[in-house]
Amino acid sequence: MKLEEEVVRRQRERARILAWLLGGFVVLLFFITIAKTGINW
Amino acid sequence: MPAIELTTPAALPADWRDILALTKPRVMYLVVFTGLCGMLAAPGVLPLALGFTAILCIALGAGACGALNQWYEADIDGKMRRTANRPLPAGRMDRQSALHFGVGLGAFSVVLMGVATNWLAAVLLAASILFYVIIYTVWLKPRTAQNIVIGGAAGAFPPLIGWVAATGHVSALPLLLFAIIFLWTPPHFWALSLFVRSDYAAAGIPMLPVVAGVPSTRRQIFIYSLPMSGAAVLPWLLGLTGPIYGGSAAVLSFVFVVLAARVLANRATDPAQMAPEKKLFAYSVFYLFALFAVLVADRWLAA
């Protein structure tokens, strides 16, 4: 595998993981807000 | 993985597996578990989202400690067989990235803890990270054989943080949980350092077996197991827990002291003949898991 291909592969992989983590963080913040404002489910 | 035509490793962005390895996920279990137990043993129940976030923050804080530890000790890690393949000494990642990642992760975990639970828990989390990185890693570890004794305080914070996250204040029981882990750390690590001491000696880290010798370390292990056992049964003696915890703590601690006595009686200096030390090390991990699990069970049954 060429160096450029490996660089692109790693960048894509990291971008995908970061996107999932950011998505998870947004969901977590949503639930934290709900819990802090005292709404019971 | 297929072979890569590399010029220098630094030319590549770090693989996500190397970033994950920086956080030392394998040593995170005990931190997360004791933090969770501290939270579950506390009176009152946190909403699930806040409880989850508190534990996540403790895990992220531990990850930040791991990353900053590896950033600072990259040279030392390269000299030890056990750690030579970590991302920094192996050249798969540059030190600057590890520093930025560690500082960022630590700051994020503290702010999130403050926002989600309370700022006392966040301050304690920040204190534990700073204590581990500055007091233990930078100051004590390369200078004194007592590094583990004082540095052990950093690993003792999680149940206290978990409790404070749930209640907003400090009380006697979480301080005793802190004391148990504080006194448990020296015999736990010294048992390990007895059978990996050639690694520590090669790296120039003044671990007790390297500086004071094997017999002295064995004596210290046994001595520390006694106040640790006392601290373990103290919550019951003070009426803070029930007899389920008290009985279990007494039995678990008795076995610990017996295994420590076997270490004391061992005369071998060859790591291959250090079965009592290996047994004590393995049991010490089980001991802490069992003790904290029983504590939570006892508190829940009493409630």
SS-based class of chain A: mainly alpha
* Helix fraction bin of chain A: over 70%
Q: Given the C-alpha coordinates, what overall shape of chain B results?
A: flat
How many angstroms separate the termini of chain A? Answer: 52 Å
Number of helices of chain B: 13
N to C succession of SSEs of chain A: H
Note the main sheet of chain A. Answer: none
Rg calc of chain A: 17 Å
SS content category of chain B: mainly alpha
The gross shape of chain A turns out to be rod-shaped
Low-confidence stretches of chain B: 1-8
- As a percent range, the share of strand residues of chain B is under 5%
The quaternary state of the protein chains shown equals heterodimer
| Biggest sheet architecture of chain B | none
Residue ranges of chain A: pLDDT <50 for 5 or more in a row?
none
Give the mean pLDDT of chain B: 91
Features:
heterodimer, A: about 40 residues, mainly alpha, 1 helix, B: about 300 residues, 13 helices, about 75% helix, about 0% strand, disordered N terminus
Notes on the structure:
The complex is a heterodimer of chains A (41) and B (303). Chain A has 41 residues and is mainly alpha-helical. Helix content of chain A is 83%, strand content 0%. Chain A has one helix at residues 3-36. The mean pLDDT of chain A is 88. Chain B is an all-alpha fold and 303 residues long. Chain B contains 13 helices and no strands. Chain B has helices at 16-22, 28-41, 48-72, 74-79, 95-116, 119-140, 147-167, 172-195, 197-203, 208-211, 214-237, 243-265, 275-302. Chain B is flat, with a radius of gyration of 20 Å. In chain B, 49% of the residues are buried. The chains are: A mainly alpha (41), B mainly alpha (303). The interface between A and B is medium-sized, with 16 and 21 residues.
